[in-house]
Design a protein that fits this description.
single chain, alpha+beta, 7-stranded antiparallel sheet, elongated
Amino acid sequence: MSSGSSVEDQPVSIGAGEGYLRDYYEHLAEEDARAYPEELLAARAAMHRHTAANRFPGSASITISDEADRSVVYIVTDDMPFLVDSVNAELVRQNAPIHLVMHPLFVVTRNRESGELVKVSRVPSHLGISSGDTAAMPNLSHLIAQGDNASHMESWIAVEIDRVDDAKRAALTEGIGRVLADVRAAVEDWPKMRNRALQIAEGLDKLADAAQIAELRQAQELLRWLDDGNFTFLGYREYDLKNESGEDVLEPREESGLGLLRGGADTPHQIQHLTETGRKKAREKRALVITKANSRSTVHRSAYLDYIGVKSFDAAGNVNGERRFIGLFATTAYAGSVRDIPVVREKVAAVLNDAGFPPDSHSGKDLLGILETYPRDELFQIEIPDLAAIATGIQRLQERRRTRLFLRPDIYGRFMSALVYLPRDRYTTNVRLRIEQELRETFDAVSIDYEARMTESALARLFFRIRLPKNADVSNVNSDDLEKRLVRAARSWSEGIAEVLRARADGAGGLRDDGAKELASVWAEAFPASYRVDYEVEDALEDIARFEKYGAVAERAGEAIKEQPGVHVYLPDGAGATLEEDARVKLYMLEPKSLSQILPYFHNLGLEVLDERPFEIETADHRDFFLYDLGLKYPAGVDPLKTGQLLADSFGAAVSGAVESDSFDRLVLREGMHWRQVVVLRAYAKYMRQMGNTNSYGFLADTLLANPDVNRGLSALFEARFDPALGEDARRIRQDEVLAGLDAAIEQVATLDADRVLRTFKNLIQATLRTNYYQNKAHLSFKLDPSDIEGLPFPTPMFEIWVYSPRVEGVHLRFGKVARGGLRWSDRREDFRTEILGLVKAQTVKNAVIVPTGAKGGFYAKQLPDPASDRTAWMAEGIESYKTFIRGLLDVTDNLVTTPEGEQLVPPVAVVRHDDDDSYLVVAADKGTASFSDIANGLAAEYGFWLGDAFASGGSVGYDHKAMGITARGAWESVKRHFSELDLDTQSEPFTVVGVGDMSGDVFGNGMLLSKHIRLLAAFDHRHIFLDPTPDEAVSFAERRRLFELPRSSWDDYNKALISEGGGVFARQSKSIPVSDQVRSALGLPDGTTKLSPPELLRAILLAPADLLYNGGIGTYVKASTETHSEVGDKANDSIRVDGRDLRVKVVGEGGNLGMTQRGRIEAALQGVILNTDAIDNSAGVDCSDHEVNIKIFVDRMVAAGKLDPAERSEFLASMTDEVGRLVLEDNIDQNILLLNDRMRVSEWSPSYERLMDWLEKSADLKRDLEALPTTATLRERLEQGQGLTSPELSVLAAYAKIELASALRDSDLSEDPWFRATLRNYFPQQLRDRFDADLDTHPLRREIIATVVANDMINMGGITFAFRAMEETSASEAAVAKAFVALRDVYELDIMVGELNELPASFPTEHWSTVHLDIRRLLDRAVRWVLSQSNASRPIAETVAEFKPLMDPMRARLLDYLRGEDRARVAEWLEKARGWELPEDLAHRWAELFESFVLLDIAKIVHVSPEPVENIAHVYYTVFNRFHADSLLERITKLPRRDRWQALARAALRDDLYSTVSDMTTAVLEATSAEMPAEERLEAWEGQNVEQLDRARSMFDEVNALEADDMASLSVALRLLRSIVRR
């Protein structure tokens, strides 16, 4: 220990804690001191002091104290030499690793009687005293105590080791105690042993017959030389040589032992039996015996003891005993020249003399050099002939690079010495270990000690001392063969590799010779030195073979390869027993991986990596390979070799990216599952997280691991359901077997949480309809039936496809077999299904206008690079994730293939289907995927999918929404209709606008060019804020057009000179933005506002008192005051979002999606803002896409049939662009008319809305809260305040009504009616009809198209509740109502009326316009109910039309001629009103006569049963109608309440009774009177025949008329009395 302390030399009292600590740690290295807390160091010093508290001289105190993760051995003993060395050696012998040694020397004062510690004094460092230096005591006289106390130098030793248990503590205490006793014995007897050596040397002069005894002089010289500091004497004993029973034995002489050979009273009297060689040597008249003892020293150093025996002789000169010294040669014995050491120098001289070389010659000096460096222990023991032979053999080696072995057995058969020379550059630890192993196996060694010597020589020398087993026979050892084996062990890598490869090439089935040479040349020097240290050449050959197998051949040939590492599990010697590791694994990689990348894979597999050896290998042809050798600890019960292939496959998949590595990997080894089987469970677990399962992902893995029977059952269930190799019968039987076992296993699960998790796994597998698992792709797809999945959040799609891979996860939700919607690139990893579920309902509402119902997909890309550093790579990874997602969808989707025999459905390969045929899969662009349609269509082509580029609309061959401006144009129809309610024509009158978006965008850019009278006050996007407080309409329009036509633009490109005073363009990143007086006025800001932060300004824009808020951007900017920002789910816009109740605009146009929450819209509408929903306003985009898909489906069939040249296809599609736009906009117009008309009577019709919502809740999965529809109680509260459902609510209700109606019509036989051939054709552009009219009926979606068109027509014209009420009041089916509607629309030519209405100028008052529409609805209501009550529902539409239209058309043309009295006056009044409104004359007549024309149905019915002419019948009918004031009665019936279904039914029944009574009375008049009479006379004649009954009826009617208010009862009685006249 260093003694660099600057502390003053002074005694420190035991009580002075600080001084004691300073002295105790005086020589602690600074870096060691920093490594330990001061408190710990203080505690250790105190513990050592406690150990020293009581001790008597001659004894040792030993304590082993435990700390947190260490133990410390504390020793207090008398100061002696060799203490620390000896203690450390014992600790090493007992495998107790040493971390820190403290060894302060103290002068200690103790009470003589009790041994109690009195004082501890530091030995002054300037004295330079070392342990055991008793000669220094006089220098410490000032520290020596007097009187009752005594002072001594003591050694205090503290050794920090690994923490030990009780058994190890006892063993260490016993061992250290024994060693300290040995040190004490050796030190105490050292002077006696030295003295005995000198006495023996002198005594040898007095021997009788000394000349006959060899080596006397050498013995004397050797003993004196040993005493001269060249030998550490550790023990001495004398023996007598006796013959007992004919055997020479050595018997110890009593009391002769010293040091380690002292022997106490308790030591047994042991006679030493000699070996055969020993017996021969014992009687030899040679004074000296020099050898190695067969035991190791416990003192100083743990080496075999040197044994020096000096024989004793009797008077006759015969051997009669032995004086034996044991100890260790001192370092001086090894450092001095061989010519100065007794015994050795004589041997050296003899060898030099025998060699005959002159001393000064080269050879003489060379031989002397060999002897000087010869192992010194050997020189003492070796015989001269052996030494001569070996030395000359070494000399003959010269500097030749070869390996030689020289063996020498110990004369007593206990040791074998082996001297090995080998080329120095071949020497490594591994080579030495290989040589050692050869020697160990050859001699069955008990132990081997070695010594290595390196000089500037070309050869290295290794000396091995081999301890032989007792009675070992080494005579059969062939040293030449052993040397050959050592040559192999020491060969160079290049030699070894070439040699082994040649040997393999010569063997049967081996490499060709040229192949062996090639490999040898490539790999000979490839392995680094660190590898060569640890492995054999044979190991290298195995590694070479694996590298070549795992890709080296392909790489050298220049082939494109994917990293697929090789994995080899092997068991090293002692694995799991003497070694901590259970096995080792070698990884063969073609690309480097850091250990931090590799180790997690093994951790996830449940393996503990104990050590790692990484190697980089470069071959001669400059290829790099990477080898990692890891020591592994396996979970209990896992067989490393049996699971080796599973480990290899799993690691290879993980490192190549084919699989995610996580806690599920533990199933691979523990359960013996292939990694692909684990992927199935992992994919389901990931889906469970998207379901909203609250258990952590780790818990799901732990649960499977903890329930192996269930885990195996789940895998078996999946295989039973989906393995294509199973036949249907076998599959059913297997499923039943597996389910029985699985259910039983789940019943045994102990905890509820685990039970739920495992049942969910089972539920998901059973709800899976299809999977691509057996297609063996890098991604996994499950097609699910959500209705079978328990706990799935509402709403429930019809189908769901879950796609999982390490790269991407995605979900596709479909609400019907024919469904469409966009695919969104989501940024919500944990809950993107929740995001998509929220969107898909909006999509379903939006899709009410098109053929497919709603669908939506979303994917989350999991391996995206940072877009800030490399946006190109970010986009590329996103595209690849999108492609994987698309492939996953197509993998489990049926295909339609056109063959000469016709169209054939082809299921996907290797997919077991548990559902019906399902081939319709259409996708679209969405957030993040706007430009991906061509990519999706490319994949459809790759799969040969039947939809071709109709798979994803909006591709390069299709209808460009931005170029068409279709989405904005559709939204603008809503804007125009909203403003018409304010009597403002947007196309001719100026109006102010604030907006979200910029002119480069499709929806905003196109929208802001749809009127030249827009005054755009302010707008913003994610980059800039545009302010133009008093814009010039024409100038600003032109500038907006310029920006729109630029390839790319932003508001910053706007010509600032054209902006009105006070305006400007500002960056959203600005700290603050100045607010001019003009801007303050335009935005309605408080006085004094001079600047705002960007978020404040954006809020001001949204809340500006403009006429229109137009959203063409991305984001949600308006919510309800009852909603939180987190509920909105658009964190980026939290700072600028406003509440719907605070909007100050008059109208909102939603060109963009999700600009407002539904509750935000409702809140705004309740405050008087006019708006629909985004689903209504921007539905033109989805409508256009659907038309594109359906057109392409048909056109591609024409191409396939050879009826359209493929080269003509693109041009033909493009030719229909304008016509597609017209068809789409008609839907937008119709939907706005629907909503406007329903709003006009929203309070009055509230009961029917309530009943419709109730019905939809029961039959169509409507959830009012989810759709933000009011409860009945809330709606009635509104009604009390004069408010009913708002337009946003009506929008949702309309969509549900259409969806439910279309679904029912699609499932009926409606489309089979030939009438709908025209309906199908009217759906398509004129160009398609003209060219392919004859083929249109083959369209595969014919049924769906017809159902969608009819459902939309019925709701748009008849009203939201029209179909529902018709079914409610007649109990007819949807199809029957639809047929009646279609027939009557044609009979009454209602399309003509609606068309004329829609052509009226925007300035036409909305109130008048809506009045006409609503009257059309009333006619439809009554006429449809009439037809349903009169005719067969299955009757073809054409028959119904043929029955009525030919009769009714002429009657309608002459209606005024037939009307009488009040009825005629009323119609004339209405006609004048229509003319006053400036309705076109034809439309005016149609409207004025609308209600009167309803009865033409009754008249037409009478015509079919009466022989009289139509004119007669019509005249009589209208005469009766007028005479009995039927119209007045109808008005009174209409005013009756209809708060519930029964009131509505009763009211309808009254109305039907009235019409029926008039019809019956007409028939009665016709039958009872002459056809020649005028109608009035005929009625009077009939009345004369029924005077009594008519008088009663008139009397009753007078009473009813006298009532203050009509009620159901009074009107019923009056009608019954009237009916009784004709139904007696």
